[in-house]
Amino acid sequence: MNLLKERFLEVVRAIAPLVAVVCVLQLTLVRAPAPLFIQFLLGSLMAVFGLVLFFLGIDVGILPMGRFIGAELPRRNSLLLISGVAFTMGIVTTLAEPDVLVLSMQVDRISGGDLPRDLVLYVIALGVGFFVAAAMLRVVFGFRMAYLLGAAYGTVLLLSFFTPEDFVPLAYDAGSVTTGVLTTPVVISLALGLSSVLAGRSSVSEGFGLLGFASIGPIITIMIIGILMR
Q1: Which of 179, 168, 177, 175 is nearest to 224 (CA)?
Q2: Is there a contact between 223 and 164 (Cβ–Cβ < 8 Å)?
Q3: For residues 216 and 18, what is the distance between their CA atoms, to the nearest angstrom?
Q4: Confidence band (pLDDT; 50, 70, 90) for 199?
């Protein structure tokens, strides 16, 4: 109950400024129809309760299980297993990520079906999967994140010169939407669990920075699809 109360207060503090600004605009400038304004208030209330349950579920279930899986994998003494599980987790969490679903649907609608929703969705998910797997192997081998980020962003910049103009902004948006409310806790908890059982590893240095690295994957895969579809 204490955790529920804590999450409720956090969500209310986060949502309250938005509701307050809209109310002020409604009373001074906008003057939206009363049914629409009431609909906004009811929707905000639903969002509060939905977010409370969502964050509570992450705290109670997703984060502990992610840490356990990450800590258990090294005990199997298989790099293939670690990379395979990380790859699979990266894909399935991205497929369920709300921001990614919204982006893929908008691309399908705006392109008139030339870029189907499923194509965009699965290409983004594959990009995240590959780079989450690479990020976990980086934790195992202890490579410096600066080297990986430099190589990855260098590849992005190089591909930008060969990618069709319409695909470049889409690629960068694809990278930004992957670090959402579902992918973030899964990737971080896996990395923290993995680093916790490796001798001489810091959870702070090993467990963070991976989201920034993983978000580069969809940028590269979308650019590659753009080049192939040219």
Answers
A1: 168
A2: no
A3: 31
A4: low
Separation between Cα atoms, residue 62 and residue 226, nearest integer Å: 35
200 φ/ψ sector (left φ>0, alpha ψ -120 to 50, else beta)? left
Residues 79-104 have pLDDT tens digits of 899 999 999 999 999 998 888 999 99
* Dist. CA 132–CA 213, nearest whole Å: 8
pLDDT at 200 > cutoff 90: no
Q: Alpha-carbon distance 59 to 67, whole Å?
A: 12
Question: pLDDT tens digit string along 136-171?
Answer: 888 888 778 888 889 999 999 999 999 999 899 999
What b/e string do you get for 159-181 counting C-beta neighbours within 10 Å, with b at 16 or more? Answer: beeebeeebbebbbbbbebbbbe
**What are 143's two structure tokens?**
């490579």
DSSP string for 122-190: HHHHHHHHHHHHHHHHHHHHT--HHHHHHHHHHHHHHHHTTS-TTHHHHHHHHHHHTSSTTHHHHHHHH
Considering the entire predicted model, what is its pTM? 0.82
Both structure tokens of 90 = 């990266």
Apex 48 CA angle, 47 and 54, nearest 5: 85
What residue spans define the domains of the chain?
Answer: 1-61, 78-228
